Amino acid sequence: MTTIKPEFISAEISLTTSFQDADPMGVIYHGNYFRYFEEARHQLMNKLNYSYREMEASGYVWPIIDTRVKYVKAIPYDHPIRITATMTEWENRLRVDYVIYDGETGARMTKGHTMQVAVGIADREMCFVSPKVFTEKVEAWYANHA
Description:
Elements: E1 9-16, H1 33-47, H2 52-57, E2 60-61, E3 64-71, E4 80-89, E5 94-102, E6 108-116, E7 119-120, H3 132-145
Antiparallel strand pairs: 1-4, 2-7, 3-6, 4-5, 5-6
């Protein structure tokens, strides 16, 4: 297997937090951060032409097996934020690192990561190596962005 890493693959989204995502103290409820991570990861996978529909069509699902989040600074509702998702592992599992930045000051507000593994839809077996259909998409992205 070829390891090519001239840079990490990243995606970024911007949004303004919603009132309904806040807790009674007026800050974003901690569970909603994972929704923000998911939106950024969705953009990252689209960059690779491996959306969730394409994953399923290729015969795999990618459940999250581990996650971590570090809340650095509370995020208020009705506040602009920027979320980056960076794929830092992909050969045996998919690890995506996230950072949420203040959309006004650029200060880091949260960081975290998720880890996912491929599971065959037909046999429900976890793959110990990322499937070829995925690694080929990553290698194609690198080949086009080297």
